[in-house]
Amino acid sequence: MTGQPLHLHKYAFQLEYRLLSVNRITLEKDWAYSDTKSVYNRIYFIEEGSGLLRFSDGKEVRMEKNQIYFIPVGACFTLTSNFLRKVYIHFRLNVHGIDLFEIAKPEYTRFSLSTIDFPGLLTSGSAGNLNGVLDINSLIMNLAGRFLGKNHNQADERLALLQPYQKVLDYIYANLSPGLSIRSLSALVNLSDYYFSQKFKKTMGRSVKDFIADKLIEKSCAELACTGRKVREIADSLGFRDEYYFSRYFKQHTGQTPIQYRKKMSSPVYS
What is the chain written as a DSSP string? Predict the structure, then answer.
């Protein structure tokens, strides 16, 4: 008996998928979801009504019934509508702690319902059994491939640039805390602190300190918006000495306290 290896993409076993939330919401009066930077990927399926997405780059997208919309992590947008019933899905798809769509930076995408049985899969996913769970996750991965689309070459190129930092990124992701030092990271790749800092900033487009802060805030926002964990539990899991230091750090980077952010995101307007 002989076997033949399948040559999968080298990152096939390094993707980390996390489903954050799935829900349906109806908004029956004028509202606006303003100037928001998404800390996770969003899929919207419009069941009734319409709306308008305005992105920070000036692009506008009309949201219509029976259409599926994708808003990638990092996108800054405003969403307005008079009446809208939508299903929303929030998820992340990480490689070495960085979301794949942060790496690929795809366009904001829309699909017609005719290409996907979205209602059928949602019905299956709401059945409360394992098959339903697998159906929902299969849907999201199917859509993720479509959203990536022609950007896969850009993603591959970007991932190749990140390869020398694989050990560093994995370490940051596994030990994310405000106390992470440049020295502990530079030692992983046998570089001086100065040379490592310069190379990291050139590749990542931001300093080591800013990168760690961004990842801390991203994870904090996702925890606050998508879980019921107490603020002190989130602070402890991210290596803050107490929830008061965490609150000050969070407000310094977002302009609001964790409680204010959670209250804002728990409002139907911000779902």
Answer: ---------TTTTTEEEEEEEEEEEEE-S-EEEEEEE-SSEEEEEEEEEEEEEEETTS-EEEE-TTEEEEE-TT-EEEEEEEEEEEEEEEEEEEETTEEHHHHH-PPPEEEEGGGS-HHHHHHHHTTSSHHHHHHHHHHHHHHHHHHHGGGHHHHHHHHHHHGGGHHHHHHHHHT-STT--HHHHHGGGT--HHHHHHHHHHHHSS-HHHHHHHHHHHHHHHHHHH----HHHHHHHTT-SSHHHHHHHHHHHHSS-HHHHHHHHHSGGG-
> According to the model, what pLDDT value does residue 159 have?
82
pLDDT, tens digit (0-9, with 9 covering 90-100), for 91-108:
999 888 888 888 887 766
Q: Show the domains of the chain with their CATH numbers.
A: 15-151 (2.60.120.10), 175-270 (1.10.10.60)
User: What is the overall mean pLDDT for the chain?
Assistant: 83
